[in-house]
Amino acid sequence: MGFFSRLRDQRAISRDLGQGVWRRAHDRFVRSLDRVFQVLEGIEDNDLYNEVVVRANELADLLPQVRQLCIDSQKLTPSEDEHIPQATSQVHRALTKSANDLATTAQVIAMMRMQAKDGEETNLKPVEHRAQIVKDDVSQAAKLLADVK
């Protein structure tokens, strides 16, 4: 992607999300998702990588929904600063929780990666569990936003 394409994308993001809490909620989710894929790239075992990448891709599929939730929240309760609008505070809390839980998922994958390097048997259940929590958080944010509308 070229310089001007990135600049155009940044302007579109700023226009849609503003510079306040909704932009930060979106960016926090993106950073956590990036971390998941950074950790994933360090998995040397092909079978384990193939299993975990499926879960990571499911989480990546949530990004358009998170972005839309943030855009809708910005339209409903605009934010250009650090103050969380009261009417959508629970939506913000659910989105923030989703990003935090996504970061925790990256940590679980990192621990699994270390176990695999040490020759220990790995279990995909903790990753599946953490991924489900993130999905539930995003679903909760969508439900809460629908209730506010």
Automatic annotation (TrEMBL):
Name of the protein: Uncharacterized protein
Organism classification: Bacteria, Bacillati, Actinomycetota, Actinomycetes, Micrococcales
